[in-house]
């Protein structure tokens, strides 16, 4: 089925997959081009992933970091936003197949920009996901919020000291920027926001453990900034375990193996996984049909113009692409997407694909907020931490948040949580807290029923 109500036109058809940093920027860059754009995305929103941890820990609401893509694009008349999950790209017939609630659609393209991003990787142990959700989607963040706050509630009702300790032990796996930010926020939530709110437990006694396989926190940011973040986290009471690999995760805890070969079990009801990424399976789909190669994380090894071999009209950008020297960060996706859109525009005006200059990445630096008033930042050769880095972090995140309304609401929420211990988004629902386990149960029931039906 083609898209119902879609206007048929003879214009050059650009299909974009994904409404994240890559997809949205590609579409916006083509706003004045004489093309017909279809933006296919599996969520209705554009998600600002860097602030997901603030949704998980009750500072921001999901609406503040995930405005509807349709509303962002409402004035761009050459673009249509279509909801659906792209499942297959036919490189020969130049079509994209997508599904929405069991209905299938086929969308033809002349040019295709794929920006489907990456999901969480459990390094072959996908069963860990049930007990240690990742931090990739709004669903993940809300579920984690439910689990974190739910653990305090259950601990309040428990008279068993062993169970209480397990409920008040929070483990974050992976000390990259997300893990560091998450650990810092759970520590501040328990030490400050929830202080005095319970009668039988003392939330400030909660343990927050951060586990990292490398020998420092924030491995991509180097030893100096890693040490700064480490010190700050320890000051917040976070227990850091380095050179430590998680080898098993279950409902009640996890097993950690250390460099010296010893292993230890940690009893913990709430685990957060922020240890690895796996690119969209669409990369493997391309590799099956062309000379495209993918790396171990499933990222597409693109050519210097970000296209795939034999298909100069198919670009792969952002977290789905492997480009030497380009980190899996928002800037990589934004710059790659704009580069691809610029090529489409230039070639529609007559430029030859043979004259393409290779993609050049401009490194604007990276940052991580460790806690309220403290961050670490790397800009060019400059490395700094503390309050100044935190101010820079604030400013930069505000600039890149999409839409005036999101920026305004975020500033208001931040003002509240920075000037007081309060947080405005501590609502949790039972559905959020148990979502993953319930869905797994439903899937198991469906599998049994399918088997019975033959
Ligand atoms: C928790 C977290 C914190 C981060 N913090 C920072 C930070 O501080 N600074 C920084 O620079 N970067 C940060 N990043 C990384 C940054 O968010 C990513 O590099 C960036 O989002 C990549 O953009 P993208 O467009 O490639 O993918 P995404 O932004 O992930 O977008 C992918 C889009 O594709 C859609 N999609 C996926 N599969 C399909 C499909 N089959 N069909 C249709 N649509 C599909 C998704 O729904 C989504 O809309 C963070 C990431 C996470 C997860």
From TrEMBL:
Species of origin: Mycolicibacterium brumae
FAD/NAD(P)-binding domain sequence ranges: 13-336
Protein name per UniProt: NADH:ubiquinone reductase (non-electrogenic)
UniProt superkingdom: Bacteria
UniProt keywords, alphabetically: Cell inner membrane, Cell membrane, FAD, Flavoprotein, Membrane, NAD, Oxidoreductase, Transmembrane, Transmembrane helix
UniProt entry tagged with the keyword Cell membrane: yes
Coiled-coil segments: none
Keyword field contains Flavoprotein: yes
Membrane topology: Single-pass membrane protein
MF annotations from Gene Ontology: NADH dehydrogenase (quinone) (non-electrogenic) activity
Family from the record: Belongs to the NADH dehydrogenase family.
UniProt main location, coarse: membrane
Classification lineage: Bacteria, Bacillati, Actinomycetota, Actinomycetes, Mycobacteriales
E.C. numbers: 1.6.5.9
Ranges annotated as spanning the membrane: 384-404
Location(s) in or outside the cell: Cell inner membrane
InterPro entries named in the record: FAD/NAD-bd_sf, FAD/NAD-binding_dom, NDH-2
Reactions the enzyme catalyzes: a menaquinone + NADH + H(+) = a menaquinol + NAD(+); a quinone + NADH + H(+) = a quinol + NAD(+)
């Amino acid at each position: 089925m083609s898209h119902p109500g879609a206007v048929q036109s003879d214009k050059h058809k650009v299909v974009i997959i994904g409404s994240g940093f890559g997809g949205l920027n590609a579409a916006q860059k083509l706003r004045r081009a004489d093309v017909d754009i279809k933006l296919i995305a599996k969520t209705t929103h554009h998600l600002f992933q860097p602030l997901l941890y603030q949704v998980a820990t009750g500072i921001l609401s999901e609406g503040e970091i995930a405005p509807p893509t349709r509303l962002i694009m409402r004035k761009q008349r050459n673009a249509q936003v279509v909801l659906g999950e792209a499942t297959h790209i036919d490189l020969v017939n130049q079509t994209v197949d997508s599904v929405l609630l069991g209905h299938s659609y086929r969308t033809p393209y002349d040019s295709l920009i794929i920006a489907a991003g990456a999901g969480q990787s459990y390094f072959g142990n996908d069963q860990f996901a049930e007990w240690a959700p990742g931090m990739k989607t709004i669903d993940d963040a809300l579920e984690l919020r439910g689990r974190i706050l739910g653990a305090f509630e259950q601990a309040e009702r428990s008279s068993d000291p062993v169970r209480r300790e397990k409920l008040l032990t929070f483990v974050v796996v992976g000390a990259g920027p997300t893990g560091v930010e998450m650990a810092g926020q759970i520590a501040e939530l328990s030490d400050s926001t929830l202080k005095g709110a319970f009668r039988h437990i003392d939330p400030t006694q909660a343990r927050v453990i951060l586990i990292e396989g490398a020998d420092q926190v924030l491995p991509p940011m180097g030893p100096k900034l890693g040490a700064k973040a480490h010190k700050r986290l320890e000051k917040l009471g976070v227990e850091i375990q380095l050179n430590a690999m998680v080898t098993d995760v279950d409902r009640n805890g996890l097993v950690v193996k250390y460099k010296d070969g010893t292993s230890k079990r940690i009893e913990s009801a709430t685990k957060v996984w922020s240890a690895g990424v796996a690119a969209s399976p669409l990369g493997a789909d391309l590799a099956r049909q062309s000379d495209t190669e993918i790396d171990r994380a499933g990222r597409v090894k693109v050519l210097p113009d970000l296209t795939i071999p034999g298909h100069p009209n198919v670009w792969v950008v952002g977290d789905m692409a492997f480009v030497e020297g380009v980190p899996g960060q928002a800037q990589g996706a934004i710059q790659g997407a704009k580069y691809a859109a610029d090529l489409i525009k230039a070639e529609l005006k007559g430029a030859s694909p043979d004259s393409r200059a290779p993609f050049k990445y401009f490194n604007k630096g990276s940052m991580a907020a460790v806690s309220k008033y403290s961050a670490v930042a790397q800009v060019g050769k400059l490395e700094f931490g503390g309050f100044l880095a935190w101010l820079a972090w604030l400013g930069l995140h505000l600039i890149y948040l999409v839409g005036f309304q999101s920026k305004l609401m975020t500033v208001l929420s931040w003002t509240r949580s920075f000037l007081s211990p309060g947080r405005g988004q501590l609502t949790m629902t039972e559905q959020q807290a148990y979502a993953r386990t319930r869905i797994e149960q439903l899937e198991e029931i469906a599998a049994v029923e399918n088997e019975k039906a033959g």
